[in-house]
């Protein structure tokens, strides 16, 4: 018998069936994505294999190896929705809010995301080699001091709330969470490229 597990009366019903033992059963939603199986306490059934890769087991007992979490909006809403994607790129499940997960599952996915996403956050721009491009920047990030080469001004993407995403010549992305919060000298250097 299906039951609605939502406590919010305005939310779209999340209908899952219970098996003979009372465990929630995995089903496919209208788009064909798997709705994550949940145990008796409502926790996601997601584990690591012997090699450390994420594994999702569906209601038929089929193992989905090397499942990857992918954030919908990694810079502007990092705690928002994320997909669990199979090794061949198909979405297996959708998680609306990472913060709504039980601590153990949230930690598992957060660790996996940290391994996949490496975006140093620029905290200070110490110097630039030239105000034309390509330009070598000396920056302090949350990961330490480094340098990046900006190939062109088009490699600086403006995001919401004063945030920037800067791609260097090696393909590494750097983030500026709020360009208005940078120190005055950093803002002056940055404004020459915006």
Q: Would you give an account of this structure?
A:
With 194 residues, this protein is mainly β. The chain has two helices and 13 strands; from the N terminus they run βββββββαββββββα. It has helices spanning 103-116, 184-191; strands at residues 2-4, 15-17, 46-48, 54-57, 63-71, 82-85, 91-95, 122-128, 135-141, 144-150, 156-158, 164-167, 173-176. It has a five-stranded antiparallel sheet. A three-stranded antiparallel sheet has the order 8-9-10. The longest helix is centred in the middle third of the chain and has 14 residues, at 103-116.
**Largest beta-sheet characterization:** 5 strands, antiparallel
Question: What order do the strands of the largest sheet run in, or round the barrel if closed?
Answer: 3-4-5-6-7
Overall average pLDDT: 78
Total of helices = 2
Structural class: mainly beta
SSE order and pairing:
Blueprint: E1 2-4, E2 15-17, E3 46-48, E4 54-57, E5 63-71, E6 82-85, E7 91-95, H1 103-116, E8 122-128, E9 135-141, E10 144-150, E11 156-158, E12 164-167, E13 173-176, H2 184-191
Antiparallel strand pairs: 1-2, 3-4, 4-5, 5-6, 6-7, 8-9, 9-10, 11-12, 12-13
């Amino acid at each position: 018998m299906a039951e609605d597990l939502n406590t919010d009366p305005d939310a779209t019903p999340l209908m899952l069936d219970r098996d003979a033992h009372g465990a929630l059963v995995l089903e496919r939603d209208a788009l064909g994505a798997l709705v994550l199986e949940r145990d008796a306490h409502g926790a996601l059934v997601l584990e690591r294999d012997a090699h450390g890769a994420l594994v999702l087991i569906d209601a038929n007992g089929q193992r989905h190896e090397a499942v990857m979490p992918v954030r919908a909006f990694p810079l502007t809403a990092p705690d928002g929705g994320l997909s669990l994607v199979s090794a061949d790129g198909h979405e297996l499940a959708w998680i609306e809010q990472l913060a709504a997960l039980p601590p153990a599952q949230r930690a598992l996915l957060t660790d996996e995301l940290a391994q996949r996403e490496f975006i140093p956050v620029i905290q200070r721009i110490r110097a630039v080699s030239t105000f034309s491009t390509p330009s070598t920047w000396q920056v302090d990030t949350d990961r330490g001091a480094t340098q990046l080469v900006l190939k062109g001004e088009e490699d600086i993407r403006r995001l919401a709330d004063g945030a920037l995403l800067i791609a260097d010549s090696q393909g590494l992305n750097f983030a500026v969470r709020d360009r208005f919060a940078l120190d005055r000298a950093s803002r002056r250097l940055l404004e020459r490229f915006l």
